[in-house]
Structures are given as C-alpha cells and as structure tokens.
Amino acid sequence: MSSPHPYIPATDADRALMLERIGAAKLDDLFDDLPDSLRDPEIALPPALTEPELIALLSERAADNAAPSRPSFLGAGAYRRSVPSVVSHLISRSEFVTAYTPYQPEISQGTLQSGFEFQSVVCELTGMDVANVGLYDVASATAEACLMAARATKRGAVAVLEPIHPGTVDVVRTYGRGPGLRIDSIASPDAVGEGHACLVVQQPDFLGAILDLEPFAEAAHDVGTLLVTVADPFALGLLRAPGDAGADIVTGEGRDLAGATAFGGPSLGLFAARSQFLRQMPGRIVGRTREVAGREGREPRTGYVLTLQAREQFIRRERATSNISTAQALIGLAFTIAVQALGPQGLRASAELCYQRAHDTARRVAAIPGFDVPERGPWFQEFLVRGPLPAQRLAGELSARGITPGLDVSHRAEPETADALLCSVTEATPDSHVDALINALTEIGAQA
Amino acid sequence: MSGYLPVAEDFGSRLSFDRGEPGRRAVDVPSWNGAASPLLDAHLLRDSLRLPEMSQGELVRYYTALSTRNYGIDSGTYPLGSCTMKLNPKVNDLIASLPGFADAHPLAREEDMQGTLRSLLELRDGLAEITGLPAVSLAPAAGAQGEFAGVLMITAALEDRGELQQRRRVLVPDSAHGTNPATAAMAGFQVTQIPTADDGSLDRATIERELDETVAGVMVTVPNTLGLWERGIEEVAELIHDAGAYLYADGANLNAIMGRVRYGDLGFDVAHLNLHKSFSTPHGGGGPGAGPVCCSEELAPYLPTPILERCDDGVVRLAAPERSIGKVQQFHGNVGVLLRAYAYMRALGLEGLRAVSGQAVLNANYLRALLHGHYELPYDRPVLHEVVFSGSRQRREHGVRTYDIAKRLIDHGFHPPTVYFPLIVEEALMIEPTETEPPEAIEALAAALIAIAQESAADPDALHAAPTTAPVGRLDETNAARRPVLRWQPPESSALSG
Predict the structure, then answer these.
(1) Which range marks the domain in which residue A434 is found?
(2) What would the pLDDT profile of B117-162 be if each residue is shown by its tens digit?
(3) How far A226 CA sits from the closest chain B CA (Å)?
(4) Is residue B415 a contact partner of residue B445, using CB atoms and an 8 Å limit?
(5) What's the CATH fold of domain B354-479?
(6) Is the minimum CB–CB distance between A333 and chain B shorter than 8 Å?
C-alpha cells in the first residue's frame, strides 16, 4: 500500500477511503465524461527515472554542452556579467520561488514590495517616470512598446533604426501582425515621418556603438513620433539616462545582470515610459498604499498591491492593453538585488571596468598584423574584428583553438561589417581569455 | 500565522532606498590596472544615479525579511484554481542551474549545445505525444504568449487560404480566461462570446448559430474553468472544421487529463500548454513560465521560430518553419524553465503522469464531497481537477462576501483559492487542490472552509476584519489606483501621480 510517486502523497489506502467518500468504485470512473473511444490512448514516453538517475542523466547532458569556462567572445544581445553572489542566494528563498502572481496582497508583500523596488530601480536607470514589473524579454517588450505607441498616436507604422538586434525586429514584426503595423527599417533619423508612431533605436546599437540620443528624440518629436530606446541596463550605469535625452519609452534586457545567460532564457524585459502613457501600459504594475484600517490603535501600515488593473486582460478582456499575465517576476527580483548590491558606485565602476577591458582588448587586436578594428565612434563593450581571412574561416580557426569566436556579421549591409566578427568583452571576461584570443589571432595572422 | 517573521516597524514604509548609508556597499568591483582609455564625452555620460547604498548584511536581511512576508507552495496548501500550484520538485532547480546549461550562450554553435538541444527535442517529442499534436514550438515564454502564437498561426493559415479578409471573428466561451479574448483582439480579431449551458458545457445551439464563414476559430479551455469536461467537444470540433474554422485549446488545465485523453485526438488544431502549471516549474511570484504551442500537421508550417530538428548528421538544430509567423522571443524562449519541465517529465514517465491526473481529479472530487452542502455548487456534477463553489448563500444570508471568506482563510494558514472567477459564477470560489496535497491537507482545508461558513453566520464581523495574522491587514486598493504611487522618491520630493 504505497503512494505512486514521491511527488504524489496519497497511498492506495488513502485512495480507497477517498473513493468511498465520493461514492466512486474506482479512480477511472472519475473520467467517465471523457469520450470512450478516445480514452487512454497509446502514448510513447521514456521510462520514469529516480532522482539519482535523473541527476546522472542531466549532468551528462550539461557536460555535453561546450564547457562554459571556455574563452568566449560572443555577445550580440547576451553578455557574461559579474553577478553578485547574494543574488542567487536570495532569489532561491522558496517563499519567492514558489509563490504565484500576488493576487492576495496580505500574504504577498515579499513579491509586491520587491516589485515596487524593481519599478523604482528601472525608473532610476532609464530616467523614466513609470515602469511595470517586467515583460518576457527585450524583444517582446519592444514589440509592446511599438503597439503602445501605435495606440497612443493612432498611427500604423513604426521606424526601426539600424543597426538593431535582428531578433528584436523579428519580434516587433510578429506582434505587428495583429494591428497590421508596417515596419520601416531606416538608416538615418531623416527617414522618420508623420506616419510613424515611434522611432526605435538601440543603445548601444547592435554593433556596439553608443548613440547620442538627443538628435533622434528631436527628429522624432518634430513629426509627432515617439522615441523608443532599447537600452542595455548595465551600460546605463555609465551612460546618460535615455529619459534625460528625450526618450518616451525605454525597454531593455535584464537577464544577464540578473544571473545566467541560460541559452537565452529565462530572460527579463524591462519596460518604462513617461507618465502620460501610464494607463496605456502593458503588464502588471505595483502601487503603494496603506491598510484600510489600523489595528489595535496603530496607524494603518504601508503595503503594496497590484494596481491600475483595469488595463489588464483578466478585467478588460478583449479591450486590455495586452494579453500578458505570467511574466518574469523572479528574474526581476534578481535584477533588482544585483543592481542594489552593486549600488550607484559599483554599477558605475563595473560598467567602466567593462568599457576599459573591452577597449584594451580592441587595441591589442588592432595591433596584430593583418587585423583591424573598424572605427565606429564611441562604443561600449562590442567591436568588429576583421582579419586576413573571411569571417567564417576566421571563426572556424578560433573554434579549432578552443575559443568561441564573436558573431559572424559579414552578411550585414553596413560596409564595415564585411568580413567582420562582432566580438564582446565585458567586466567578467578573464584576462587569461583575452590573452588566449590575442595569441590565437597572432598565430592565425602569421599563418595567413 | 506563525510562519511570518514578526517585524515591529511599519516594514513597508522603508524601502531599500531608505536604508543603509552613503558609502556602504554589498560588493566590491575589481579595479582596472591596464592602460586606461579616455572615457566618453560628458554629454553621453550619466551625472547621477540614485540607488540604495547598503552593506551586504543589510541587503541580505532586507530581502530575507521580504521573503518571510510571502506565501509560496512550500509554505502550505495553495489551492489557486486554474493555476495548478503543485509541488515544485527541487531536483529540477538543481538541474537547470548546472553550469553547462545555465552559462550557455544563446548564439553558441548548435554543435556545442547538444546537451541542451537534445533535452529540448525530447521534451518536444513528449509534449507532442501527450497532446496528440505532432508539431511543437517551445519558444513562447508563457501561456499568453503561446496563445498569441497559436492564434497568429490561424491568421497565417487563413491568409494562405485567402480567407483572412472574411474570417474576422473568434468565438470564446464566457467562462474563458481573460487572456483568450485579449489574445484574439491582439491578433486583430473581433470576439464573440459563447454562453455556458446549464450543465456547465458550451451552449451548443449558440455555437451552431454563430459558426459561419466569418469565423476564424474557436478558443476552448479543456477541461473548462468550472473544472468540468466539455461534453461533446469532439463533435463540436467537427462542426467547427465543417465551417472552415480552427479549434484552439487553452491547455491551462492539462493537469486533469495528462495521459488520459489528447487534444489532437479530440479534434483540436492547436493548443498551448503552461509548463509552470502542469509541469511543476516554479511560478516565481509571476514568472518565468513557458508556454509551448503544439499543433496539427496542417498548421505546423506556421509555428513560431525556432523549432527543433534532428538533422541527418544526428545533430539537433534550431530551424525556422517554412511559413513561420516569426519569432516571439529575441532568442529561444525560457530554456531554463523548459529544462525543468523536461526533468519533470522524465521523473514521472507515462504511468506517473497518469497518476498525476488521476490524483488531481480525485483530490478535487474529495474536496467537493467534503464541502458539499456548506457552500452553493452552481454546477453540481463530478468535476475534474478543480471545483467552483459559490459564496452566494453567505452573501445573501449573512452579508459575507467571497472576498471575506478568502481573507479569513489566510488566518487559517492557507492561501485562498481563486475568487470571482470564472465570471459566470456569482461570488466564485475556484479551488484546485492538485495531486501533491495529501488527503490530510485537503481535509484541513475543508475543515477551515466549513468553520468559516459557520463563522459567517455566527460572527460575520470577524470575517470582514480578516486577515488578522498576515504581515499586513487589508490594503486600500481603491486609493492605490486613484492616487498611484509607483516608485520610490527621495523624501523631500512629492510622490508621483499618474
């Protein structure tokens, strides 16, 4: 008389008593409403594993991936970051991990107050008035920003400034299918026109360059177009807040600062805007309030609730600002703790360390005979590397030497990307990895 | 309740920003000892950044205190209807955090990522078997995004059939999750609501009347949000197909039927799953989740990118379906969540998954039997994974609302069920115990709800005042929305209004 599985406590004896109480002869009778001819089909699944077998199997699988300790210069939207150790410790508290969306605020103050902290941190970094508690990832957040801009301006097209992450544009295009948004890829702000709900620019751009956002804001605002800035929140430790430069909506990706790159996800979409768009925003928003009544003669205490929910799907249904429900709350908590652990000086210092290490690496690469790093103005953590071989072969040579190369961008339109790898160096790139890259490129250059 | 750390102060009044002292920090950053490059021009740089300055100990204590002001499935029974709050097996977290998985770069060469990609492929194959829908994309980050992808796939298929201009309507039952109509609208459709019949199933006559050449699809939750089997759904599927429309399954309630009946066999064309519900991945206070979309061969060419492919060389690769609706994520979805779900599937196997659905349904019916007569049961027939009671009698006779009952349940140590949903049940209490609660826990929950029903007659004011044992009492939600304070501001400045 045992339970069927460690995850299912009821034993055979329990089941017999429960069935008796219900008045059912056997468990299968509870499914009598299901169509007979379709019940209990053949289903092919691998056999069940015990916990030790499961750990053994998946440890082998994890080891089948290339060792994460291997030198890597891949960035292009996902960056290795130095994440304070308190982050994984604190977000592992099971009261955070195993809670649902905070529908009962009295016993969800941990999630809610953390959400308020998150909104505050995002507003400080972006220079925006209001933020939500996060969306799925930077690309879907940017797509939601475009939909919001289209609603706010009643315009049917958006302009996207290249170079921008291709994955972001792909998702904007997918989300644009609903309202039939036209997506115009543009190379200069001069191409922004009165038909555009918003101009989307990435900061730093897809090839690593830092933009002066102010002229873009002016060009957009001149024709009644909103400026959406897709900003790297880590770089914002150093860079001027987009809101101070005229952005109307700021999105970003919080995953890397929060923890692991994790093959892309769990990710974390940041979404912040000027206050006039508050009631148009997608996603959950936490607000501060007080108890309805004080207890035992005390003043009512402060608490936090989900608010402005008349925007949301479970109330507004087909008239909601978005269909989003579950988002990425736990990653938002990790992001908040990481930023607060670093603090204002630490975040700035970490961003500067990233900048210095990347620039030093670029200088050393450019000094290798046969290699150059095309000049693209001020930049942050990514640079183009051109060598004596076509990009694909250069990447192959680096892989053969145990180094994960930067992204091959040689197919892109910008002239400087011809034969180029887009390489990323961050504050978390060990010196030994940079040395390995320099040695490998020197060797490849000598053989070419 | 005993689990919450008592704090004397008005804890919520002081954020991290109000704690610590200038000059403190939780972690040091290495200094750069190489050649220094000139920093950027001043107009590109930030001149200030307002963030808390806390020592490591202060930061750790602040967030630890916050965690104790939360209730999770690890704290106790969490019978939130339609959310499937079941045990989150700890081994799954361990697996997802293995460095080979956690530190993988999304643009790494596929040849270097076979450990992850093979696991995802096997998850995909398992989901296809479990749903009876042969093609799957794991990309959507949550149920609502899976829905959005699924409805866009219908759009794309109709476009290829040349019928998108005429088929502008999606039919959605009045018992549906709010995400269904919101998704249909986001995908550009008009929503027509279908009423629920007296037995709790879709009203067949209305469906037959509404089905015409203007209908693109019908979105149905199976089992539905009343916890009931959608009787005759396989016949409705035929009617829908005869009318040239598609049938969409909201898979939020898959937990009830895993291993027992399949969406594909019932005639559904496309379905999304919520792996953070049925497949036990932790909900994290509002995500991350994962919302794979599964479909028929006919709709497979339209799946969101990427899908997985085992190539002739044996390598598993990411691929774009021929007529894909496009990407829904910058990269490949919430892979860490998908790995947890894969581990869950491997830990259970088919017999285990059948035991899951069997016990989930038995537990819901057990609770239904224990509470029968104490609360109104508007749809009084055997249920599947959840049961929807109504507090209408308590409201009518004692002036006690479901809201009060839910708040009082907190004082008994439980997380309240879902309330006021589905919308078609007055004063709804939607209770989903899940298979991971032992019978003693279900009996204790029932005893608490019965005590509250008795208390609603004897001392309704006690219910109006609940909860009294939570970290905070009832909060003023009206004022929160009327005068929004949505971020920290320095003490001297006034709060932001929206």
Answers:
(1) 343-447
(2) 999 999 999 999 999 999 999 999 999 999 999 999 999 999 999 9
(3) 19
(4) no
(5) Aspartate Aminotransferase, domain 1 (3.90.1150)
(6) yes
